[in-house]
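Entry for pyridoxal-5'-phosphate complex. Fields follow.
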Amino acid sequence: MNGRLECAFEPFRVRTPAFVVDEGLLRENLAVLADVKEQTGCRILLALKCFAMFSVFGLLKTVLDGTCASSPHEARLGREEFGKEVHTFAAAYGEKDIRELATTSDHLVFNSFGQLEKFGSLALRTAASRGLALQLGLRINPEHSEGAVPLYDPCAPGSRLGIRRKEFPGKNLEQISGLHWHNLCEQNADCLERTIAAVEKAFGPYLPQMSYVNFGGGHHITSPDYDRQLLITLINRFQDKWNTLVYLEPGEAVALNCGYLVTTVLDIVAGDGDIAIIDSSVPAHMPDVLEMPYRPHIIGSGAAGEKPYRYRIGGLSCLAGDVAGDYSFDQPLQIGDKLVFSDMAIYTMVKTNSFNGIQLPSILLYRPENKKLQTIRDFDYGDFKTRLS
Ligand SMILES: Cc1ncc(COP(=O)(O)O)c(C=O)c1O
């Protein structure tokens, strides 16, 4: 995970807790993705599972070609709010999902031959009856791990994600126009290079009949150390070799380092050391910190022991492990201070929950041209209550 050393807006202007997304930083990421598209002709989709702040879709769709969805709800959001192409993949579908997805998706990707055989024709018929041109794809498992954390490695032993090579012989691929894989997580282009070699070796006989191949997400394209030139070379080489169109579907790379979670220190309690309690919660507002796990960066902080004043930063919930980590600061923290966590646009808003009834963070957009902070959405008791019954 990356961290910015500063934010362009003044945190004291923000009513907390709140996510703030900086539109200027999104534009910088889009420029990088636009360059990849220009130099390859590939298509790039936004992975909604990572970032689905639809108030900025107008900006994102100036560069990106559409969205990739993991469920009927995400596909509908992509169709209604983004437009352009919608590609959907889920580990399995029910019949109701298929009937809906056939009308909201342009590409529907199956995770098994069993599901393709059961639902492929139904999906195509449903789409055709509405005058829609649906295409079907298969998710393959390249059986090539690149060292991602096992929780995020779809090629880990025992994975349920993707069809293995040994299942292909004798299968009917007539309805299939694309293959899809996803095996990377915050990784560089050398990992993609080795993955492509593994895919070509295993699935080479099937590639010539595919009009598109989707390389999935996990490409950290907008990270400063990413080898963009290698990515461009790999895409061009693959497209030329197999006479096909490459899709990428990054989530992180689109909004990497573009957002913040602004919080306020509510209390400072004495544990084995000083603990600052903020008006946020790690499991409710930044659950990946516990899931991955990682230590999010707080602007102006250092590692524990690096600066003179050391604090553990903890959240509001009952969970004993509701702790972001141990940090140090140049000045003692005071009740009322704002603490700004960086890189909080991705896998946050899409994952928040109201555990313990904790207030959901507002969603704000910062526009650098006029230094305006626009509140896009506040949440209240009604949002908590309507998810219960
Ligand atoms: C199938 C698929 N596509 C795309 C993504 C987006 O990955 P990232 O946000 O790491 O780019 C994921 C993430 O889990 C995924 O599972």
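NOTE: The pocket of pyridoxal-5'-phosphate is lined by residues 47, 49-50, 68, 89, 182, 185, 216-218, 249-253 (CB under 6 Å).
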